[in-house]
């Protein structure tokens, strides 16, 4: 899976940027604030969701013009080649087109798979459970495009149930349909997450890698979570009195946490050094990519923002070797070309500069 062309028009700091690319990894370098992350954020939109920054369509428009933005790309994937475009007019919701026809996020997810690691994820193991759930769901979504719809439907029903709880509504008739919806979609979420975790663990176990393996497990604050729709519906019904006192729903997949452990050392990821935590994250992203390759027959697009800056030369070389062995088109950013020296001719390189608030992208040829 790879892009062979990418065009950005009025997207964040890019007034007009065009790249012609092949299936090799892509190294993007330039000074801080030049627009490197904006470039790979555009690539992240080829995956369902709000992209690696979770920005709104309005956030992504270039200012001060604010006339809207557009992204076009030619994506080679397991089923062929597709022209994919995204656009937003003056802050309107993002539109997706595949081969000139309007498409849904789920349709996009069936042909395009993207995984990423960005600096904001470095605190994953020491922040709250919400960030780890989001990380888990991003990985799950890469395997199951319908996971996003199940999560949206679950959240919608839960918000309405929480509204009833806050208003101290006690009539059970108001809750039954909502709890049935939460149970049905919640069971799908639970099953998808468990299967995704199993695939990640198998991909780690089968690989020879320079990065440490992570033991992963799911937990909830109050013991084992209900796994079936019937069990979850019963738990929601039985928990109404407790939930009324709390003013919110206290049982369900929205309470799940992802626990990680450095397998070789047997210590929790939260107790590891900063470097070890980063290495565990890289290991999981690579495992996600390997598992996807084994599932759909092609590795996904891999986005690694500023990852090289946190690795010594030997670890950088090991990462680049694994990416090339995987056959993935990885988009990597860094402040200088020296961070990608170990890649050599195995990657295309681009330099991003900033001139009067406008990002400019040009091909970069490293010195022999």
How many helices does DSSP assign? 9
Percentage of residues in strands: 15-25%
- Low-confidence segments, given as residue ranges, are none
Mean pLDDT comes to 93
Tell me the number of strands.
Answer: 15
User: What is the CATH first-level class name of the largest domain?
Assistant: Alpha Beta
Strand order of the largest sheet: 2-1-4-5-6-7
CATH superfamily of the largest domain: P-loop containing nucleotide triphosphate hydrolases
Label the overall shape: globular
Q: How much helical structure, as a percent, in the residues?
A: 25-40%
The main pleated sheet reads as: 6 strands, antiparallel
Radius of gyration: 22 Å
CATH topology term of the largest domain: Rossmann fold
Helix and strand sequence: EEEHEEEEHEHHHEHHEEHEHEEE
Short recap of the structure:
By secondary structure, this protein is an alpha/beta fold. It has helices spanning 36-44, 105-111, 129-143, 147-166, 173-205, 229-238, 240-246, 274-296, 313-326; strands at 2-11, 14-20, 26-29, 69-77, 80-88, 95-98, 101-102, 114-117, 214-219, 257-262, 267-268, 301-304, 330-334, 348-355, 358-363. It contains nine helices and 15 strands.
Structure description:
- This protein has 368 residues and is an alpha/beta fold.
- The protein folds into two domains: 1-113 and 300-368, Rossmann fold; 118-296, Up-down Bundle (Glutathione S-transferase Yfyf (Class Pi), Chain A, domain 2).
- The protein has helices at residues 36-44, 105-111, 129-143, 147-166, 173-205, 229-238, 240-246, 274-296, 313-326, and strands spanning 2-11, 14-20, 26-29, 69-77, 80-88, 95-98, 101-102, 114-117, 214-219, 257-262, 267-268, 301-304, 330-334, 348-355, 358-363.
- The protein has a six-stranded antiparallel beta sheet with strand order 2-1-4-5-6-7, covered by helices on one side. It has a six-stranded mixed beta sheet with strand order 8-12-13-3-14-15, with helices on both faces.
- A hairpin with a 2-residue loop joins β1 and β2.
- It starts with a strand and ends in a 5-residue tail after the last strand.
- The model has no long low-confidence stretch (mean pLDDT 93).
